[in-house]
Amino acid sequence: MKTDVSIGLLGLGTVGCGVVKLIRQHQEELVHQLGYEVKVKRILVRDIEKDRDIEIDPASITLNPDDILNDPEIDVVVEVMGGVNEARQYIIKALENKKHVVTANKDLIALYGPELQELAWKNQCDLLYEASVGGGIPIIRGLTDGLVSDRIQKVMGIVNGTTNFILTKMMDEGVSYEEALRDAQALGFAEADPTADVEGLDAARKMAILARLAFYTNVKLEDVEVGGITNLSSEDLHYGKTLGYTMKLIGVAECQDEQIEVCVQPTFVAQNHPLASVKNEFNAVYINGEAIGEAMFYGPGAGSMPTATAVVSDVVAAIKNMQLGVNGRNLRGPRFERKLMPLDQRYGQFYIRLHLKDQVGAFSKITSAFSALDISFKRILQTPDKRDELAEIIIVTHKVSLDRFQKVLLQLNEMPVVKEVNSYYLVEGEA
Amino acid sequence: MKTDVSIGLLGLGTVGCGVVKLIRQHQEELVHQLGYEVKVKRILVRDIEKDRDIEIDPASITLNPDDILNDPEIDVVVEVMGGVNEARQYIIKALENKKHVVTANKDLIALYGPELQELAWKNQCDLLYEASVGGGIPIIRGLTDGLVSDRIQKVMGIVNGTTNFILTKMMDEGVSYEEALRDAQALGFAEADPTADVEGLDAARKMAILARLAFYTNVKLEDVEVGGITNLSSEDLHYGKTLGYTMKLIGVAECQDEQIEVCVQPTFVAQNHPLASVKNEFNAVYINGEAIGEAMFYGPGAGSMPTATAVVSDVVAAIKNMQLGVNGRNLRGPRFERKLMPLDQRYGQFYIRLHLKDQVGAFSKITSAFSALDISFKRILQTPDKRDELAEIIIVTHKVSLDRFQKVLLQLNEMPVVKEVNSYYLVEGEA
């Protein structure tokens, strides 16, 4: 009789080391849970000599992926190497060799999740990826099991720790984007090339994954509208704060009348909204369901050990399924065709900042433009500008359809009394 | 071939009506998920004539539990009738008749959960009770699946919506306990007899359930220390607010060195703590795990439809298990014997309010008592008292063992310079 389960690890970076540590530290609990010992039999690395903060038996390390993918003793392959093409090839081979796969790779799942899922089902294997969204937060299980009976209407999340750390610094300490980014890099919360994080691409991948699971539909990455945080000005953050908002990079996935929208945008969130108190590198996913109303899952969105928690919980699930002989049944769900929601059916509140020429009737001209499009104001803030012939105006609108908001933006840009439309952001919640 | 699954409902109150509604409204999704139609075949009620806000086929209603428990067509019994003895008898009979059971009954699970779980395993049936804690929040799955690979150190929660509603009113609007209770009753957030809620008993039951799952041990209800909110004074809430705290009824379950403590106490929570922003009838459970660090699950802790979400998600899980032939494997876990943690190994910060006689050296006498027991102060607030021969002192201590805190309380009560120790509360977080 088998007394242990062997896993193969593809990658031994931050998360890989966490997985090895967690399996060692919690071996007693794993044996209690599973009746089996969980052994990391083989680890694929790029560089054998690299210094790592854990001790690894040199015999278990390999440069050859086939030592894992072709080893009949290995039941579960854990992919924590990152990147897309190689990882995809290895996972395909693992599934074809009837190995269950656990991955933390959001880039890969966002791009090839549905294709890999099909392959997993065909081979009666598990493909699990809890760690791909929200690090250690069990948000994927929350959606697919915990809220399975509900009809999800909206998923709104802070799903990128790097940008949330930067924005927290900018809002709470008033530092510039550049300084906050340097701090994040120094503390290991941002990479040397932060593009994927600060441009919103990483968050977009995670939102695509969440939207697929929430709405049972095949959201493609290119369906996600993406905005980043690189152009935020400290003026806007200051004014937002004055108005009772905090700036967050918010991913929204919404489904209405079988149409969906998925976007990632810097957004002013009302201070009393549950997402406003999510600080630094933490993540949170806020869910609106027809029956549950609102719920939120909060926790560390990255980091070696938290992410390892999600990976190893998936490994446990795969092993339990092996014991029961029911692998390949997870995350199965109906697939609906859903169209993207057209702009005239999408609504949002907006913050807009602009400079008017200080002429008699200037303000009345812009308010007529708004009211002609039936856009009403919730808040107006006029501040004296240094350039004294100009007036700086901040407007927070009530809910407006996105097509009408785009129209008013066009009109404002063409009006002679408007010197410049400086910025506009989505607003969430009531400040 | 079977094309539907029949469930029997014990009880048709708030939650029962929600379950019927949810199954009707989401039938399409359920069929997609399961391949089966889910039919509520029979409903046990106490009063056939009672007005209900949903339409029910009179033929499906019965006063006789055996119409459900002995019906071979019924696969899943959903117990939402509440109460302990009858519900327990019916569930036992259902399990013995090889029916899977889903229950929302925290009183029953807190008292008889382990016994019923054993019976379910013996009969290869599922016994699921996600709705028993935190209403619609999938916290039980979060612990048993999502965080299965972690070693949970502490579970801290706001798990009673009634008291959280009352405390929110008292803190935010400054109203008295009596007035807040009346409001809660008028809005349906508190029952005519609110004892179980306001005395902390309901929260204690839920914490016992969570502690069992988190620490794999058989916590008994009598192991939970319980305090309620009926004696809170508006003075203390006012001073707490001044010091940066908000008052919450907090359940804590902690495990250290294989010893546990479980208690429910009114607690001052620092305003910047994630639990402080949980308002009104909402619930939240905050978890510390060795690997994940901190995570939180937030949502509606009660209500017809949210609770029905958790119930029907359990029904879906039971039916999926039926299809796979793996019922009776859920929530199985190792059981450790764990002792209760002795007072000298339990630590807490405390808020304490007392009146001193206004004598020279009085304050120095009490500070000596504290420092002799090695208890240091974090904050001190002295306020002039109306009774002008007295001084009112509020102290927030640093962490102190509970036995030493009890000693200092005894000494203070016996000191001639101390007129009265008015109140003391646990403090959580750094204000």
UniProtKB/TrEMBL annotation, chains A, B:
EC class (word): oxidoreductase
GO molecular function, one term: metal ion binding
Catalysed conversion reaction: L-homoserine + NADP(+) = L-aspartate 4-semialdehyde + NADPH + H(+)
Domain of life according to the entry: Bacteria
Pathway: Amino-acid biosynthesis; L-threonine biosynthesis; L-threonine from L-aspartate: step 3/5; Amino-acid biosynthesis; L-methionine biosynthesis via de novo pathway; L-homoserine from L-aspartate: step 3/3
Binding sites annotated in the UniProt record for NADP(+): 10-17
Requisite cofactors: a metal cation
Active site: 206 (proton donor)
EC number: 1.1.1.3
NCBIfam families, per database record: PRK06349.1
Protein name per its UniProtKB record: Homoserine dehydrogenase
Organism: Weizmannia acidilactici
